[in-house]
TrEMBL record:
Residues 509-529 are annotated as: Disordered. This is ATP-dependent DNA helicase RecG. Residues 485-659 form the Helicase C-terminal domain. GO terms for molecular function: helicase activity. Residues 289-462 form the Helicase ATP-binding domain. It comes from Streptomyces cirratus.
């Protein structure tokens, strides 16, 4: 009898070492359970053919098609090494035609099998020859109707054929045979959903869902299975997040209330403007959380330029008022330095506590980054451990073991999507009791993604721009079709500078990658031309359209002291045009900058363009953002740019962005293992399932935090968290 593997058994015994090796290396499938969760990507019907018309978008990709042979011709040809045979087969499916080609000794079998009128599944890499699409030496599986009677023939014609995500070494139908070998084990899978939930929602049991997803009898079977498997993914993930929220809510924390007439009141009294209603209501939510004896866990989503830093600073001052310290964690040195500069400017003499001329109620604000010199670093560490510094701003250098606080009361994480959950936890462990946590992001996040990626946090939204903020006009500049538009863009930059303002020019790469020939050649193969570079564009501008203006460059590989010097001189107005990479994407605040030109704008994501654009229009003069692209007007990339030009609403743009990207990009590193656990769930489309799963998960965890009565759920949860830890360590 053929061996049927246990769910957690290695696949070598059942499928043989060679197949098991390909499954493990190419598709990350190691056990029978992994294979059961490797779902078909789509289904072909024997009675209806797969559209060949769609293949034009899939050049160089491995595809599986079901089609009928229209024509087969065996040709003899003369080559440089003598003669040979070539079999050309044309297949059709009603939507289009495709040529298959076989050479040499490989022509005999297909010449017998692929007769006109026969039907088969074909798999191969889509190529182009003489301007026509073709598959060269495709693997194929004939679909011969050998049914004896009409009913059986009809059933055969309507059978759904699963098409699996495949790879060059293992075609879809071979994966289907591997799945057949483990499918009997589906009966042993442990159901993670509580029976009451499953019955209440009308969901099929897990073994049935697995059988229906792999071997459906009807389209309704596929729908039943998908609905059920989506619920598994959403629910297990939401239980993990609900348990995290529950555990956090049980932790003790020091309540931090600002003292009347203290540092916060002094700061507010000096403000030259009134806080927006949004800033006031979000601040109230934060202060209410800070006043409780459990740690705050709040996500602050703010539209670009909505004044998040002001809200975070007031929260930090409230904590310093109550005798604690506050730490702000930024993803890059440029951003940490920028925050340090702007916070000390906002605080004025209040940031000079203990210094001559400082306010009695002031505190010290220190900067801590990895590249600081030893004397400055030593002083910063000393100020933290003695409590002399109430506020510290730094990069991940703050997480290092050597950093000790006198009494850490609040951690503010800027641009959360750049940090993993573990990094957040490492900083939180530095308080005597868990500190309060405020996470900020300037990338607006649709509700479902917030529930998925940041599901362990409560959410506040700041969507109102402060008074005095100017509108930003955005235009697409088609550099290839209309070169005079680009010339006009540089004239606009010169006009802004002559009117006393400043400009940014953003490029996708730095330009000193020539020392890495491997990188260079790969880039040249995949691109028609390499992305435009900071160093090259800066040189062209200085010699050409911006000659005579003060132009400087800024990028991530510069020495930190040089970066800081350039940013300081740009902020002071000495540098008129800053040619930079995306290091200026977040947090950089120079109100006098009114124009930004983004080169090769089609190479950036929608949300990233929105972020970059937010660097201009921060003062009283209107902002202008020019998106330069060589892409054709009808291309999807140009449609993306048009969407950015059409609206300043970050939430609307983030939705467009997510619809155009893959789930993995959405989830990013913030929940490191979530990506691999979402095979069926689509974060944008399945909003309702995610919202309902969150409610159910919160209820289940409140009733039974340890899940003692739900062993199946515990098993699924352990598997999810293991993946998460593994993925995180791999990224390490």
């Amino acid at each position: 009898m053929e061996h049927v593997p246990a769910l957690d058994e290695d696949l070598k015994k059942t499928l043989g070492p060679a197949t098991a090796k390909v499954l493990a290396e190419q598709l990350g499938l190691h056990t029978a359970l992994d294979l059961l969760h490797h779902y078909p990507r789509r289904y072909a019907e024997r009675g209806e053919l797969t559209p060949l018309a769609d293949l034009a978008d899939q050049i160089d990709e491995h595809v599986t098609v079901v089609a009928q042979v229209a024509d087969a011709r065996l040709l003899t040809y003369q080559g440089s090494r003598g003669g040979g045979k070539r079999l050309e087969v044309t297949i059709t499916d009603g939507s289009g035609r495709l040529q298959l080609v076989f050479f040499g000794a490989g022509v005999h079998k297909p010449h017998k099998d692929l007769l006109p009128g026969s039907r088969a599944m074909f798999a191969g890499k889509v190529g182009m020859f003489n301007r026509k699409l073709q598959l060269s030496h495709p693997a194929y599986e004939p679909l011969g109707a050998d049914a004896s009677d009409r009913d059986a023939a009809t059933a055969f014609a309507n059978q759904l054929i699963p098409i699996y995500p495949a790879c060059a070494k293992l075609e879809s139908w071979k994966i289907a045979k591997c799945v057949d070998a483990v499918l009997p084990r589906a009966q042993e899978t442990v159901d993670p959903l509580p029976a009451a939930l499953r019955e209440g929602r009308g969901l099929v049991p897990l073994p049935e869902a697995l059988l229906k997803i792999h071997r459906p009898g009807t389209k309704a079977d596929i729908e039943d299975a998908r609905q059920r498997l989506k619920w598994d993914e959403a629910f297990v993930l939401q239980v993990a997040l609900a348990r995290r929220r529950h555990a956090d809510s049980q932790l003790p924390a020091v309540a931090r209330r600002p003292s009347p007439g203290g540092l916060l009141d002094s700061f507010d009294a000096k403000l030259p403007f009134t806080l927006t209603e949004g800033q006031q209501s979000v601040s109230k939510e934060i202060f209410d959380d800070l006043a409780t004896e459990h740690p705050m866990h709040r996500l602050l989503q703010g539209e670009v330029g909505s004044g998040k830093t002001m809200v975070a600073l007031r929260a930090m001052l409230a904590v310093v008022d109550s005798g604690g310290q506050a730490a702000m964690l930024a993803p890059t040195e440029v951003l940490a330095q920028q925050h340090h500069r702007s916070i000390t400017e906002m605080m004025g003499e209040l940031a000079e506590g203990g210094m001559l001329g400082g306010s009695d109620q002031g505190t010290k604000v220190v900067l801590l980054t990895g590249s600081m010199g030893m004397p400055a670093r030593r002083q910063a560490l000393l100020d933290l451990v003695t409590g002399e510094a109430g506020i510290v701003i730094g990069t991940h250098a703050l997480i290092e073991d050597k950093v000790r606080f006198h009494d850490l009361g609040l951690v503010v994480v800027d641009e959360q999507h750049r940090f993993g959950v573990e990094q957040r936890d490492a900083l939180r462990s530095k308080g005597k009791q868990p500190p309060h946590l405020l996470v900020m992001t300037a990338t607006p996040i649709p509700r479902t993604v917030a529930m998925t990626v940041f599901g362990d946090l409560e959410t506040s939204v700041l969507d109102q721009l402060p008074a005095g903020r100017s509108p930003i006009a955005t235009h697409v500049v088609p550099a290839k079709d209309k070169p005079h538009f680009l010339a006009r863009a540089w004239e606009r930059v010169r006009e802004e500078v002559e009117n006393g303002h400043q400009a940014y020019v953003v490029c996708p790469r730095i330009g000193d990658e020539a020392d890495d020939p491997k990188k260079k050649s790969a880039e040249d193969e995949s691109e028609k031309r390499p992305p435009l570079a900071v160093l090259e564009i800066a040189e062209q501008l200085v010699k050409g359209p911006l000659a005579g203006l003060s132009v400087e460059v800024l990028h991530g590989r510069m020495d930190p002291a040089d970066k800081d010097d350039v940013m300081r001189r740009f902020a002071a107005g000495e540098v008129k045009v800053l040619v930079a990479t995306t290091v200026i994407e977040v947090g950089v605040n120079v109100p006098n900058s009114t124009v930004m030109v983004i080169m090769d704008a089609d190479r950036f994501g929608v949300s990233q363009l929105h972020q970059l654009r937010g660097r201009v229009g921060r003062g009283s003069a209107p902002g202008l953002c020019l998106l330069v692209s060589e892409m054709h007007e009808a291309s999807p990339a140009r449609a993306r740019l048009a969407a950015v030009a059409a609206t300043l609403d970050g939430f609307e743009l983030s939705r467009i962005d997510l619809e155009q990207r893959r789930e993995g990009d959405v989830l990013g590193q913030a929940q490191s293992g979530v990506r691999s656990s979402l095979r069926m769930l689509a974060v944008i489309e399945d909003e309702e399932v995610i919202a309902q799963a969150r409610e159910e998960a919160t209820r289940v965890v409140a009733e039974d935090p340890e899940l003692t009565g739900l062993p199946g759920l515990r098993t699924a949860l352990d598997a999810l968290l293991d993946t998460e830890r593994e993925q995180y360590l791999e990224k390490g």
